[in-house]
Amino acid sequence: NFVFSILFSFFTYTMSESIIGAGDWIPMESDAVKAGHGYVWAEKVPSSDLHSCQIYLKGNTEGIAELSHLLEQISDPKSKMYGKHLTKAEVDARTSDPIGKEAVLHYIRSFGLTVVKETESALTVEGSVGQWEAALRTEFFFLKRTDPAPNAYVRCRQYFLPQRIAQHVSTVMGTVQMPVEVRHSGPKALAFSPLP
To answer: Most buried one in 75, 148, 153, 177, CB count within 10 A?
Structure first.
């Protein structure tokens, strides 16, 4: 199974290179964790380890701009639209981008990744680290705290998407981002918001 995962990731990466082309990859985000902030980059994550990410879609930018204008009218007591709130379905119809979402779904599924939750604006996707590395043209490492805390995260330093997919994606969480530190009273007590 491990050998199959490695071969599948290599085959998928090779196929995507020949289909997409080397110059078509867009850098998305870079690591938010810098040296000296209590973390150290550790060993590479095994390709067969499972990893989950959330892909946030850009949606229909024109519809979002129209919705912003409409919200101003709904909130203005002088407007004839005042108080005429929209349903979630009406908001989704104005802001979703079904063509873009379908392009992203097709792309991630071509790497063997599995969608476990889907909304109009976000996808929760699971797969092996090797599949994610091929899909995002990156490498994942363990990111560990320098103090004795047991926290370790699976993160990459940067990731890329083909331009035809990047135009539909705002961010892929579970890649370069870190949880927000929450300080509690007491000596050096730290807690982290949960992240996959």
So the answer is: 153
188/12 Cα distance (integer angstroms): 45
CA distance 189 to 182: 9
How many whole angstroms from its chain centre is CA 155?
Answer: 12
For residues 26 and 161, the answer to whether their CB atoms sit within 8 Å is: yes
User: What are 85's two structure tokens?
Assistant: 């709130």
pLDDT tens digits for range 129-139: 999 999 999 99
- What predicted TM-score, i.e. pTM, was given to this entire model? 0.74
pLDDT tens track for 173-184? 999 987 766 666
Backbone φ and ψ of 171, nearest 5°: -160, 160
First to last CA, the chain: 23
> Do residues 171 and 56 touch, judged by C-beta distance below 8 A?
yes
Q: Cβ–Cβ contacts within 10 Å for residue 16, how many? A: 18
- Compute the half-sphere exposure of residue 129: CA atoms within 13 Å on the CB side of its CA: 17
